[in-house]
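Give me structure tokens for this 333-residue protein.
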Amino acid sequence: MKVKKLALAGILTVTGVAFAVDITGAGSTFVYPIISAWSYSYEKATGNKVNYQSIGSGGGIRQIENRTVDFGASDAPLTPKDLSEKKLLQFPVVIGGVVPTYNLPDIGNTQLNFDGKALCDIYMGKIKKWNDPYLQQLNPGVQLPDRDITVVRRSDGSGTTWIWTNYLSKVCPDWEKQVGYGTSVDWPTGVGGKGNEGVANYVKRFRGAIGYVEYIYAKQNNLPAGKVKNKEGNFVAPSMESFQSAAANAKWDKKQHFYYVLTDQPGKNSYPVTGAVFVLFAKDKPESSKKSVQFFDWVFKNGDQEAARLSYVPLPQNVKDMIREYWKENGLM
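Here you go.
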């Protein structure tokens, strides 16, 4: 029985009968909105389905380690050492930002200012009220209410948490010493929500709540996203432009499997809580990985407009070209 691949459509044919290829992925809730949009467009264009489970980066890493999916997605990049030990490959697909979002009807949709100390002290339980003098000092002219702060954080293994806690570790010595960073940490305080969806829902439900979510989740839930003071001392609003400014400093290196962290980057317009989403393939499952490469190659050619519509930053063309070289070097193209 002869089997051949139709490269353009990515469809397998057996004795003239066409079968669509199903691709499975799991992980990052940060990237779920854009993966969903890409998957819909990819199926329309090629007939191939991408089934992606939004289970958090920790779950995505576990599933690709266990070889139960074709690809994993994580906002927490794995080190070259970890990748080598687990026989995995890694590359970035899109860039976005993690934002402080809050529910304060007292001030409407006012965009509040935060800095590293304020976010650190809120998440350590040291700042307990919205009208705390330090928050008031950061927000002159805003009448902050005498309201308790309900801290919301992730309950699951999360790359969004990795980005958030990595940033806090860089700007707050107490956080670095007492909590540190990772996909899961021993939180000093807070209510846990599952996924970016869960955190956004809790923030919407509780007056006085603050949480951290990928930017699109704040936008989709009509929640405000605060400005954060960056390395240059500027309060910067989250936006495609401010994420792009942070990403401009990235030193991607395919020899290091593109390991690079985008938090607290220099630049007057750089948003300090920026991160990339990384896709993970199994080196010892080349056929499975090749199916996924066809999808992401299609995304790199056709998906930038959709990414921008959802406030993600597409990768620059030179980085996409470098990723294609990486795929070829590893026998996936």
